[in-house]
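user: Please supply your own:

assistant:
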Amino acid sequence: MPFTYRRYTVEGLTLRVGRKDARSAAAQAGAVPLLMLNGIGFNAELMEPLARHFGDRSIVCPDMPGCGDSPDPVVPYTIPRLAKGLVAMMETEFPGRSYDVLGFSWGGALAQQIAVTTASKVARLLLVATTSGLLLPFGNAEVMRRLLDPTEYMRPDTLAENFMALLSEGGASAGLLRRFTMPSPRGVSCQVGALAAWTAAPLLPFLRMPVLLAGMAEDPIVTIAHQRALACLIPQAETLEIRPGSHLLPLAVPDRVGPDLARFLSPAAKKESAAKTTSSPA
């Protein structure tokens, strides 16, 4: 079931937000809602195939400013400001209820910020192929340099070339490319600037909700070292390493990852305390 879309204004930022509502009355009343947060420059449609794995529950997935169909921000924003706005949005949509948060890549940073500042609202935290904000190396240095260098994304044609390189390096499928909407130069620059000035690392050891750290073993963009750093910072977290797997695997081939993520988010799932590694066919 694809998302339906509407617009919200949070913290002075206008966002197009994808939404899938629980179909049954019982699920609407009892299932924990899920907030899904996407990667840098990505639109919510890229999350739709993965969202199908999470059963009959309400799901919310916003486009960041300048991505998808969200307009550009008027002024740059910070990750704490955006997190505050999304928490307020979830409280409006699901008053008094806690919710799960899934953050992929850049969205994992935003998910961490929500978890450390509004821990009472986050039932479970799922971080996929993301970073703690610590100074650790990324995989393909040339692709990341071109994406993070401001001179490389101020022109739309150069930005398009760099995103195609990023998608290709990350293992994008043809289906994923069809769903992709090119972000604006300003949208990407604001996301890059927000991440460059952010880390939640000092507060991560204090998280007490269940946390799953999912990483792709052959990720050339955000290497598995970032997941292992997060595992050191969140000692109670479960870990899941997907082998083989590249950065965009959760979006490009969600059937390889979705069932494991869904089991973690299932209230009936029996959690294993030991870290686990999964292997699946290429």
Remarks:
- Strands lie at 4-10, 13-20, 34-37, 59-62, 99-104, 122-128, 211-216, 238-243, 276-279.
